[in-house]
Amino acid sequence: MSAAAEPLVRVERISRTFRNGTGIHDITFDVQDRTVTAVIGPNGAGKTVLFSVIAGLQPADSGRIESPPGARIAYCPDVPQFESWLTAREVVETSLAVAAPRSNAMNAREALEQCGLSKVADRRVADFSRGMLQRLGIAAALVLDPEVLILDEPNSALDPIGRADVRRLIAEQRQHRCILLSSHVLSEVEQLADDLVVIADGRLVVSGTTNDILAAGRAPAWSVRLGAASTTSLDELRIAFPSLEIEYPTEALCTLGFPSFEAAAEDLVPVLNALRAPVLEVTLQDRDLDASFARIIQNQGSR
Predict the structure, then answer these.
(1) Which of 56, 59, 213, 284 is 20 to 30 A from 233, comparing alpha carbons?
(2) Cα Dmax for the chain
């Protein structure tokens, strides 16, 4: 993955299959310490099952999870549930009480403050919104001072301000521990994750660094915004550049597709010159993780 050091967690050929055939099948990847690894995939891909096995909440049918002896793994599900009569402070204190205390662990007050809940520390969780419950689940996991913090859809119920707070929290905590997370908000995954694990239908599609997977999912195609209509006909361009795919959605916008990035490196500038029109902007299409992810899953489905 992103570092050459020995991984903190090694997931080796893990399978967990249910009677209807769903589950996860033969999944292998490594997770490094002090990094963020995101597991992404369509709904029903098996992300939650995978996290449950890594956290020890479900047994694997085969394969193994390797981590240092005594390593503490904390898991926050996508919809945390707590006894309704407890206060937020009591929830976090209970979480801390079930684990052996550590000298450098934060206390309940600090965990609640980190997750933006200090003002409601003494409120009953029966009155909490789903977003507040999500934050409380993170606080209850964080107070354990785990080596591995697993967050299943930590942003699913949060408003934009809450998502920004969780991004900040994850960025801070990656300095102290390994974080495994899943999210459908791929723009945030792109900002946070060092490494990606892509799964579909319970199987590993690809794993690697975020930059490598972004690059693998991109197509050699550019959008070109023009200051005036091109004076070169499509026929002239296609004769001069036989491998070029060119379209004009409007007179002021054209798309250029090449058979490879190597071909684009050689021909992109000559094609722009051949348009004989002022070029205002040249943009690589599908630059973000959403587009790369869609292409990776689409390619997997066509195999």
Answers:
(1) 284
(2) 75
